[in-house]
């Protein structure tokens, strides 16, 4: 799941070197925190949050295939 999120984020941003993805396991779910360059935050979030929502849906689908729950937080 980690590699999947990083792969998609690299294709969305202008400065892929500044992508940082941390994860923390809590009870029955995994929380991912995505950090990107300040100028790329808008690209990851998208208009009205549509890009971020799409990322969350894809991550949830990948996690479900592995029998887990995943949450994506975008750090600003």
Please write out the topology.
Layout: H1 2-12, E1 20-26, E2 29-35, H2 41-45, H3 50-65, E3 69-75
Parallel strand pairs: 2-3
Antiparallel strand pairs: 1-2
Overview of this protein structure:
It is a single chain. The protein has 76 residues and is α+β, with helices and mostly antiparallel strands. It has three helices and three strands, in the order αββααβ. A three-stranded mixed sheet has the order 1-2-3. The longest helix has 16 residues, at 50-65. It is globular. The model has no long low-confidence stretch (mean pLDDT 93).
Structure summarized in a few sentences:
With 76 residues, the protein is α+β, with helices and mostly antiparallel strands. Helix content is 42%, strand content 28%. The longest helix is centred in the C-terminal third of the chain and has 16 residues, at 50-65.
What labels would you give this structure?
3 helices; 3 strands; 3-stranded mixed β-sheet; alpha+beta
What profile does the largest beta sheet have? 3 strands, mixed
Q: Mean of the pLDDT scores?
A: 93
Count of individual helical segments: 3
Order of the strands making up the biggest sheet: 1-2-3
Shape: globular
Strand content: 25-35%
| Radius of gyration based on Cα positions | 12 Å
Structural class, please?
A: alpha+beta
Instruction: Tell me the total number of β-strands.
Output: 3
Order of helices and strands: HEEHHE
Helix content: 40-55%
Distance between the termini: 21 Å
Low-confidence stretches: none
């Amino acid at each position: 799941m980690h590699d999947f999120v990083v792969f998609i984020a690299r294709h969305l941003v202008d400065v892929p070197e500044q992508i940082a993805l941390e994860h923390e396991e809590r009870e029955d779910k995994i929380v991912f925190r995505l950090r990107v360059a300040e100028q790329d935050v808008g690209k990851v979030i998208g208009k009205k949050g549509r890009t971020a929502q799409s990322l969350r849906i894809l991550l949830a689908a990948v996690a479900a295939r592995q029998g887990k729950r995943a949450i994506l937080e975008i750090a600003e």
